[in-house]
Amino acid sequence: MNKLEFLKNIEIFKKLRKDSLNNPNRLNYHLMAMGGWLNDPNGLCQFNGINHIYFQHSPFSLGWDNKIWGHYSSKDWINYEEHQPFIFSDILEDKDGAYSGSAIKKDGKIHYFYTGNHKFNDKKYNYDYEGRIQSVIKVTSNDGNTFESKKIILKEYPNFVSVHIRDPKVFLENGIYYMVLGAKNNEGKGIALIYKSKDLEEWDYHFKIESKSYFGYMWECPDLVKIQDKWFLFISPQGILNQEFNFQNKYQVGYFNLDLDLENKTYQLKEFIEIDKGFDFYASQSFVDEKDRNILIAWMGMADFAYQDEVQGFNHCLTIPRELSVNKYGHLIQKPLVEFLNLREKEILDFKDLKNYNKSVEVILSDLDNELDLVINDELIIKYEMGIFYFEFKNKKTNRDIRKFKLDKLDSLHFYFDSSSVEIFINDGIYTISSRCYFKENYLFFLINNLEYNYKIFKLKNFNIIEFNYEQENNN
Ligand code: FRU
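^ thats the input. predicted complex w/ beta-D-fructofuranose below
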């Protein structure tokens, strides 16, 4: 979809925006598309104090469709500005979608690398090993809002890769730029490819990272991150078999701890840790902000599942941003950004009073001492029993009713409820649970077996979002 097509059909988008205002599942402090569909966070960066959050967006559709990049910006993570879409799919190489990608700053500019999806539109292809080209495309911007032209950076790849190769994440290490790409190889195995460059313009294939045994057929949205001198390879692998306590979603997200020598192309992958244990968390992306914090955001959704939002104006949202750090066991810790303290409007002193407020609420339960049995809105059961954590919906209408996993001990739970979603930070962020949840009531009520828990509850404010003025844009 090019910009002209977008503007010509803007009434469809406007109608969705209007519908979404009346959608009871609309989020109050999570980024969603103002109208239409959203999936992966893209191009995350902070530039001259402003955080840019782009996302996979289909502005005319509530389902999977042609993708362009939607755009928000914020200085403080509470007040946002909506911008018109940043990247349209308007050249042959991205005609079937301006797919996911990342951003990096260099010489006072932001450089973006994304996947152009080009399908040959002919039934004779299987689109796995033929019939598609996924190119790496670069655009450069002085302000995060506009760019002049698109440059094709990579179109051909080593001959062991299938036609599934995408989601470039670019980073700088020891004065050299590296790009990690997710792929499926010719044996049907998920792998990551590393390219390198001195100047962000010319890129050479460097080496590949793969697991010794099969670990899914495709690694989407890879992200190589160094935190406190330790390397982590995030991937969103597809094709992992569900297990009783792990990998219970259709697609997963997690990270390998790894020993890595980028220059000498050596690595050793260690254990894979699934970072989020809920139903809705995928395609995460991290970036380093101007305070040197590693911040992670994911799509709070999952492909190939019908959500209740999608009947009215919008579909899906992003998670709240989380700051990453490493504990002494080398395990990543996620914490809500400290800016989210500014979202607190008022302390609610008693669980009973929750009925007087809407579902934008933060709840902190601490000193749990390995004990928990909780029912929320007579629908969501959260309990900890014999070393197993359960997150379970009573209403078993879909195949998304229960998640359970092993946890050595339970100290605390930090909940962020927002309208139709919940994010839980367990034991100060060793795991999270991110899920959409559609309670019938427009307030929360907790049934707790032990009122001795230490708790704090806060009513939260809404994000303040200045909407883009499409009337004006159309007149230009
Ligand atoms: C992950 C993903 C990416 C792709 C994008 C398309 O959700 O499938 O691999 O670039 O979404 O929207």
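The first strand starts at residue 36 and ends at 47.
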